[in-house]
């Protein structure tokens, strides 16, 4: 029998998860916030288990966060950073899966530049797979840590008005957050220039704005996104200066939001491009550091739930 509260072998995306499953992962994460804040941060829950971080794309906070999460639970954690080769990515991934299977690992945390890479690997390996970002598709633990941060500050997710601003088109963070916030009963607005929105954005169940002051009016949460220069194949914005003028978050634009609106950013930030540097550091408004803290707790919860499911034979 698997954990009926989260009856899955993997965490590949938020799409398809139920409100109860999401709430369960958030509730479990709360326990680990306390552990990380306490004097003794090492548990023995995952002693004898092996977690592999397989990162085909650069990452600082996500990889470190998963590493800390695994170690705080007592697991052995191995980091494999693989340079991305432009050739035969499919074959490389399948070869990697065979190698990992031979090593008898328990959890594979994977980040890859191709959408669908985590799913592809999950079909080939015997362990549990956590998607740590696949191309422009999903980044489920980021959406969970964002939700945990919001829920702890506001007490709930339902009924909140959340603006996701900037490069939505290239953002897996935005996609996972849209799924999660919608299913949890929040109202999502996207604010971006037309060039940085996905085709048929409205079909995602969101309201679309092209003007920051209009879009931010009375929102509870302002989620800024990084301009994903590495995923841009052509010129999506006229210039950085113009982008900041129209779409960068500063105190003036923020004044349209509710007075207690929270500012979030998944990091890494381009200061002065999508967000004013002073505002990003303003602890009265910005919960960016708290997001990083919640990241470790959420990843501990995911590792804990998935390894337990694996030993119970989750399909
Ligand atoms: C995000 C990512 O990699 O998708 N970063 C992260 O996980 N903290 C967002 C980004 O790179 O802009």
Overview in brief:
This protein is an alpha/beta fold and 315 residues long. The protein has 11 helices and 9 strands.
Key descriptive features of the protein:
single chain, 315 residues, alpha/beta, five-stranded parallel beta sheet, four-stranded parallel beta sheet, 11 helices, 39% helix, binds N-carbamoyl-L-aspartate
Task: Give a structural overview.
There is one protein chain. With 315 residues, this protein is α/β, with parallel strands linked by helices. The chain has helices spanning 19-37, 61-72, 89-102, 117-122, 140-154, 172-183, 212-215, 240-247, 251-254, 277-280, 288-311; strands at residues 50-55, 76-81, 107-112, 128-134, 161-165, 187-191, 207-209, 221-224, 262-264. Helix 6 (172-183) links the parallel strand 5 and strand 6. Helix 1 (19-37) packs across helix 5 (140-154) and helix 5 crosses helix 11. The N and C termini lie close together (10 Å). The mean pLDDT is 93.
Write the layout of secondary structure elements.
Elements: H1 19-37, E1 50-55, H2 61-72, E2 76-81, H3 89-102, E3 107-112, H4 117-122, E4 128-134, H5 140-154, E5 161-165, H6 172-183, E6 187-191, E7 207-209, H7 212-215, E8 221-224, H8 240-247, H9 251-254, E9 262-264, H10 277-280, H11 288-311
Parallel strand pairs: 1-2, 1-3, 3-4, 5-6, 5-8, 6-7, 8-9
Helix pairs in contact: 1-5, 1-11, 2-11, 5-6, 5-11
The structure holds N-carbamoyl-L-aspartate.
What class do helices, strands and sheet pairing give? alpha/beta
Radius of gyration: 19 Å
- Strand residue content: 5-15%
The set of bound ligands, ions and cofactors reads: N-carbamoyl-L-aspartate
Give the SSE order as H and E letters.
HEHEHEHEHEHEEHEHHEHH
What kind of sheet is the major sheet? Answer: 5 strands, parallel
Q: Regions with pLDDT < 50 over 5+ consecutive residues?
A: none
For the residues shown, what is the average pLDDT? 93
Order of neighbouring strands in the sheet with most strands = 7-6-5-8-9
Number of helices: 11
- Helix fraction, binned, reads 25-40%
Using DSSP, what is the number of strands? 9
Anisotropy-based shape? globular
Distance between the termini: 10 Å
């Amino acid at each position: 029998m698997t954990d009926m509260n989260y009856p899955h072998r993997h965490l590949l995306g938020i799409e398809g998860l139920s409100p109860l499953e999401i709430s369960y992962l958030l509730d479990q994460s709360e326990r680990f916030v306390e552990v990380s804040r306490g004097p003794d941060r090492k548990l023995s829950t995952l002693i004898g288990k092996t977690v592999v971080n397989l990162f085909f794309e650069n990452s600082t906070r996500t990889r470190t966060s998963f590493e800390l999460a695994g170690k705080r639970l007592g697991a052995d954690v191995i980091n494999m950073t693989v340079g991305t080769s432009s050739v035969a990515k499919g074959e490389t991934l399948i070869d990697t899966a065979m190698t990992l299977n031979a090593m008898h690992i328990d959890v594979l945390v994977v980040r890859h530049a191709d959408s669908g890479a985590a799913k592809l690997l999950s079909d080939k390996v015997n362990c549990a797979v956590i998607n740590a970002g696949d191309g422009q598709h999903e980044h489920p633990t980021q959406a969970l840590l964002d939700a945990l941060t919001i829920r702890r500050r506001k007490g709930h997710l339902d009924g909140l008005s959340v603006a996701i601003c900037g490069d939505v088109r290239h953002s897996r963070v935005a996609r996972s957050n849209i799924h999660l916030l919608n299913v949890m009963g929040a109202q999502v607005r996207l604010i971006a220039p037309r060039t940085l929105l996905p085709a048929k954005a409205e079909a995602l169940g969101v309201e679309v704005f092209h003007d920051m002051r209009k879009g931010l009016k009375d929102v509870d949460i302002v989620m800024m996104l990084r301009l994903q220069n590495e995923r841009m194949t052509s010129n999506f914005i006229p210039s950085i200066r113009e982008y900041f003028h129209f779409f960068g978050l500063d105190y003036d634009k923020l004044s349209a939001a509710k007075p207690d609106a929270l500012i979030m950013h998944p990091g890494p930030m381009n200061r002065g491009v999508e967000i004013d540097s002073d505002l990003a550091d303003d602890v009265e408004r910005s919960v960016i550091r708290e997001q990083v803290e919640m990241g470790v707790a959420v990843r501990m919860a995911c590792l804990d739930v998935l390894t337990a499911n694996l030993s119970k034979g989750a399909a």
